[in-house]
Design a protein that fits this description.
By secondary structure, this protein is of the alpha+beta class. Helix content is 25%, strand content 30%. The longest helix is centred in the C-terminal third of the chain and has 17 residues. The two termini are 54 Å apart.
Length: 304
């Protein structure tokens, strides 16, 4: 059975939606692989997001800024919904600081954040309006990560935190279709993005994450088992006379019907000690005789 998946097809349905077909997948694996990839794409695809904002010296998100139509909370919400990407290779947790100066009066849109390094993919997104002929300063921290995070306000003095959503995926839908080969299927993935990621790279990243999750099963975990001493069953079947007990000990055990060593060690020290005429001296000698054969009475905490 083949286990070598291939990219059979990748087509652009529209500007931000792609149809990707993986082929040569065993039929029994395709549905499970599709469900796993759908979750991994939604949760583990990294992206860029604005995480902190310094907006014209604001102290908190519930105040207004002079000469700006929107309050700070509305501006932060607009920046949060700005979809962007940064050129270059970044590791998770890395960030860049961008500084802007806007001269009013004017409308400031997401496209005004574009630089030679940063590119916005929803350029017509409204950010805020400057009402007067004044200069407004804006600083943003953009970070590369996965999922979403809420940042501590005190982490960078003067910056207001955002609930940053890094996931660059709008939606993902998977279904498996039969191939011409009776044992193989094609996995069709419909991927809708915000235009900030390469769809082929998204699938490769999800497959890599899936492979890493399965690596733990490649080498079985070695568990350190407790060594258990196996006792000779024949010894347990022998009579208690093998232990050379005193006449008092024999007489004490007789009412319980104990005749073999196996029956004797099924009792605890405390249980035998309460037998009529059974003293500590006789019982200690019995224990000593058992220890000579690497045996012992049942633990006192163990239920009969």
């Amino acid at each position: 059975m083949s286990t070598s998946f291939t990219f059979k097809e990748i087509t652009e349905v529209n500007k931000d939606t792609y149809r990707i077909v993986l082929g040569d997948i065993p039929r029994a694996i395709a549905p499970s692989l599709g469900n796993a990839l759908r979750r991994l794409i939604k949760q583990c695809t990294p992206g860029f997001a604005i995480v902190e904002v310094a907006f014209e010296g604001t102290l908190h998100q519930y105040q207004r800024v002079n000469h700006v139509a929107e309050d700070v909370l509305a501006v932060l919400q607009n920046l949060k919904n700005t979809k962007l990407t940064i050129e270059g290779n970044y590791q998770t947790g890395e960030r860049e600081l961008f500084k802007y100066q806007f001269q009013g009066p004017r409308m400031v849109k997401a496209e005004d954040l574009n630089t030679g390094l940063l590119t916005v993919t929803n350029p017509q997104k409204h950010l805020f309006e400057i009402l007067s002929a004044v200069e407004i300063n804006l600083q943003i921290h953009v970070e590369y990560s996965t999922g979403f995070h809420v940042y501590d306000r005190d982490k960078h003095s003067g910056f207001l935190p955002l609930m940053a959503v890094f996931n660059p995926i709008k939606g993902v839908f998977c279904k498996d279709n039969l191939d011409t080969h009776p044992d193989l299927s094609n996995l069709e993935i419909l991927l809708e993005t915000y235009g900030t990621v390469d769809p082929r790279q998204v699938i490769k990243n999800a497959l890599h994450q899936y492979y890493r999750c399965l690596q733990v099963l490649k080498h079985p975990v070695e568990l350190e088992a407790k060594k258990i001493e196996v006792t000779n069953n024949k010894l347990l079947e022998q009579g208690i006379d093998t232990l050379a007990l005193s006449a008092r000990a024999y007489n004490c055990l007789a009412p319980l019907g104990i005749t073999t060593i196996g029956e004797l060690i099924s009792y605890s020290y405390a249980e035998l000690l309460i037998l009529p005429n059974m003293g500590n001296k006789s019982l200690d000698k019995m224990v000593s005789q058992l220890q000579m054969h690497d045996l012992q009475l049942r633990d006192t905490n163990q239920e009969r």
